[in-house]
Amino acid sequence: MGAADNAAAPPRGDVPERGRGGGEPEAKEREVKVVVVDEPPGAPVARLQAQRPLAPLQVTTQAPPPPMSVASGGVEPPPQVATFQPVMQTPPQVAFASLNSRVYTNGITLCVFLVHLAAATFAVGFFVFRAVKDIVQHPRSRNAQRERSLLREWLPPVEGAVALSIVLAFTWQKAVRAWPRAMVGVILWSSFGITLAVGAMLMCFSMPATVGLGVAMVMFSIGTGLYACWVTCRVGFTARVFERAVQPVDKFRGLNGPAYLMVAAGFVWISVWCVAVIGAANYQFPGLTILGLVLSLMWTAEVMRNVANLTASRVIALYYLRGMQSSVQFSFQRALSYNLGSACLGSLFVPTIEALRIVARGLNLLEGEDEFMFSCAHCCLHVMNAIFEFGNSWAFVHIAAYGRGFVQASRSTWEQFERLQGMPALVDSDITSSVCFLTGVTSGALCVALAGSWTFATHKHYTATVSLLAFFVGYLMTRIGMALPQACVGCYYVCFAENPTSRLFDPTIPERLHKMQEGADPLVPTPRFPQQHPGAA
């Protein structure tokens, strides 16, 4: 290396001479390049350190080979699998595509309802025209005088009850959304107190018809009070479910709009319907005609309620299952078009099933040691179980979300409940539907208090019929308004059964299921699950 150092000295001293021109600088420049190779080890290492970062840059921009990925850290692949695992658990693309199904469900029922609606519209228009015609063209006839008397004495209290029912429908819905925990107990016990007070008021009118209605309301209030005592242990859990279920409503602007629109449409239809009843009272077979109008109004109002239910169910269900911000207007259009047939069929099925359920529970409490009552209770229970598989109120969630028919949706929802241990008993002991039903009863009783006292003070002989119609109208309008909270609770149960690991659900249901498995749950037994928890108090 000493010779190399001596050889390197002249060129280093001659480096400033390169700027003078001539051909020598080129040779010296080449000589410098040769000498660089013989530099001490420190200089090449520095050069290699400057060049080495280029190789990793080129490698990292390309796909790394398997040995490098393992050597760089074998712990990285597991977190990537865990990160994408929830995506792998999502339903297949077939289920996702069915969210926008354009098939009209339950087409036969839809056709029957549309024919019925056309016939009812024609009948209501005919009887209204007939009443007006008699009053205008034959003002001194007997029919015209009677119709004029009904319009002047019978119609105003009924319309007042209709207006009050709208206020009550909006008030109940707002109160349940604002104070869900408190309103469950308030509804149970206010239904008992208000129906008892109104029944006593009707009995004080001292007319045979009003006394009969008063006795019926007092008996119903006693049954309501016993029921409220029986389900006291369930109130806390139902209140927590209400509180959690209505929380997503604030995320969707205008979600309560369809319910309000259905209430407004119901007000218009009932107002015209009342005038038609006046015309039908002076037509042939008035009893059968008015009965037909009443049944038509019941089915139509129930369809209105289920349209609002389907709209809210689709928006809330897609939020729970897909995390989607669904359009309320689009969901409302689907409920009025593709899913209207299922709403019509469910409007016929669900009230019948709920009535059977109440009868079964009542017989189950009264059966005792009597063999006949025992046989009746179990016969009714078996019939209810057979029907429940083909039609239940939980079906509206799958109808709205997946566009299924009513029977298919009923089966799919109940199969989901059965796949989760303890879930069938939990949903069977749910009292949400009873709470919503009692809101309608309470509103009906308040409408009776208004219309009955009004009519008794002006025209006593109409008190019974006005009171009965006021109760009927108040109940129907409030049930339409309460469709939103009931839909939220239905989505909470059904969507949890479909995806229990979703982060959108709190531990309310899992904790209750855990208590049920330990035998310390107070929600059961029920007639359909009489021995689920032998250790329960």
From TrEMBL:
Keywords: Membrane, Transmembrane, Transmembrane helix
Gene Ontology MF terms in the entry: transmembrane transporter activity
Keyword Membrane assigned: yes
Basic and acidic residues bias locations: 14-33
Residues spanning the membrane: 108-129, 184-209, 215-237, 258-279, 285-304, 435-456, 462-478
Membrane listed as a keyword: yes
Topology class, membrane: Multi-pass membrane protein
GO-annotated cellular components: plasma membrane
Record's function text: Choline transporter.
Name of the featured protein: Choline transporter-like protein
Organism: Oryza glaberrima (African rice)
Gene behind this protein: LOC127780441
